[in-house]
Amino acid sequence: MKLLGAVLVTLTLLLPGAWGSQETRTCVFQSLTEEDRKFCRGDLEIIYPEVGDVGCTYIPKCHGYRQRLSLEWGEPRVRFPRAKKNMKYVLVMVDPDAPNRAEPSLQFWRHWMVTDIPGLDLRVGNVDGKVLTAYTRPKPPRHSGYHRYQFHLYMQPAGEIIELSDEERDSLGTFNLEEFAEVFDLGRPVATTQFITKNYED
């Protein structure tokens, strides 16, 4: 599916007149390193306008994609085809590289958290649940290098009511994801993926 999306984007960019008078260029969707690819498991799809599923890729700079990701595009569609229709799920999006990957003193920076997501909705790419942290666009600081944006999908235990503490609500940084999962008995994520980007002006 990801490969098909990349092919379609490439074909669109190569079509005569597709971008008016602009110079036609091919966008290259670079795959992650072997180390970073290990994080991607479970076929979780993260779908943004124009670029499609960005799981396990770098966001290319061409055609302003990094700028649009940071300034224009809202929350992505998140699709998990293997979701159990009668179960609920918890989605957490974090940046483990805040303020930079070399010294991530603010990891994990929480960008989005939704609980009580029906499995039936996840199958078709709808994240319709209880929003504990509203979506904030990825905006890596200038000259901070590449940042990973990670998505953790957990199956929510039946009857479990999940809340953030007052301290967690007050600050998006230094979020202890492992402790959060342990407190609410979430176990290991059923699926994880990530994309990598950096400041669009760098």
Describe what is shown at a glance.
The chain is of the alpha+beta class and 202 residues long. The chain is built from six helices and nine strands.
Task: Note the main attributes of this structure.
6 helices; 3-stranded antiparallel beta sheet; 202 residues; alpha+beta; single chain; Phosphatidylethanolamine-binding Protein; 9 strands; globular; 6-stranded mixed beta sheet
CATH topology: the name is Phosphatidylethanolamine-binding Protein
Radius of gyration, in Å, reads: 17 Å
Distance between the termini: 30 Å
Helix content: 10-25%
Number of separate helices? 6
Q: H/E order of the elements? A: HHEEEHEEEHEEHHE
Task: Label the overall shape.
Answer: globular
SS content category: alpha+beta
Counted up, domains total: 1
Count of DSSP strands: 9
In CATH, what is the homologous superfamily?
Answer: PEBP-like
Mean pLDDT, rounded to whole units?
Answer: 88
**CATH hierarchy class name:** Alpha Beta
Q: Major sheet: size, sense and barrel closure?
A: 6 strands, mixed
Q: What percent of residues are in strands?
A: 15-25%
Poorly predicted spans: 3-24
Major β-sheet strand ordering: 3-9-8-5-6-7
